[in-house]
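Exam prep: given the inputs below (a chain plus pyridoxal-5'-phosphate), describe the expected output before reading on.
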Amino acid sequence: MNLLQLDTPCLILDKKKTKENISNLHSHLRDLEVNLRPHGKTAKNIDIINMVLAGQPGGIAVSTLKEAEYYFSHGIVDIVYAVGIAPVKLDRIVSLIIKGAAVTIILDSIEQVNFVAAKARQHGLIIPVLIELDCDGHRSGVTLGDSLLLDIGYLLNSESGVTLAGVLTHAGESYQCKSVEDIRVLAAVERDTAVKSAEKLRQNGLPCPIVSVGSTPTATFAEDLAGITEIRAGVFMFYDLVMSGLGVCKTEDIAVSVLTSIIGHQKRKGWVITDAGWMALSRDRGTAAQKVDQGYGLVCNIDGEPLNDLIVSSTNQEHGIISSRGGKGLDCEQFEVGSLVCILPNHACATTAMHDRYYVTDGSTEIIDVWHRISGW
Ligand SMILES: Cc1ncc(COP(=O)(O)O)c(C=O)c1O
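Solution:
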């Protein structure tokens, strides 16, 4: 099958670019002597995670229990559920552990320790726990210097049903950085927060075998990861316009795009109308605050070459409007009604989440495979 035969809108994955992106992060982390724990939330597909895990120790992170159950059913055992734990999640975690999964959870409060330990004891299990740290004010976690770190550590170490497995932090603010130098500085802050917290636990007689950090920007620009046992990253597999705006990748490295049909022209306004609205692209506007605002996505021809300064400037549910960046008139005649273009996404995780499959290419317009994605929680 060829791209030209596909029903639009649909999601295209360039396998060659994905492989190169994976191999680049692997070689950077090999130089820094730290393991990669890929985040399964970006791909939500086992074929892609297997590409990342080849030759690696084998653990992943997930953001939903649906991902945990799916990846476990495909043979991945070592799973960190990297979202703060809630009581309603525990039955499914217990069920995964009973079936043989090595699931580690994260938390940042005494209440969470108490309900996790109680549930684990009911089932005669021991659930490994990472204490979530806040390295950059992004969202949750215990800050360095907060006595809560030791309170949680002591409780995890003394309660039956739970065990202290280590610490975890995610520098989510790296997405707001204004320069590569800012990302380098944040990568060092992320590392220091995790390493100093681990030292504090150890100095107080508590174990801290896992010291886990990561986001795609900080993983890419980290220069020294001494004391870190693993890096988590997800977006690096595909990259996106937010990452290219940050300087983490080049636009030509972006491995996913949405194929869309031209369905009309508004010549007076200089608009071209497509069938990829926010249901196909997502409403993510992650580049809005960056130097170059990419609207809802950057327009490329079907060979994946960006068409200078053409962006999806507006979306409805099933319509996209292509116009020139900055509102200059667009010559509609260059886009025949019924022809196809590809849209590069602002945020790969958000855009791919709108689709149930990848049409896989090897860089040409031939479809070499169809890979399914899971969704939901
Ligand atoms: C806890 C956690 N770890 C790791 C990641 C991976 O970061 P990225 O998506 O930048 O690769 C995320 C992403 O949201 C996350 O929430």
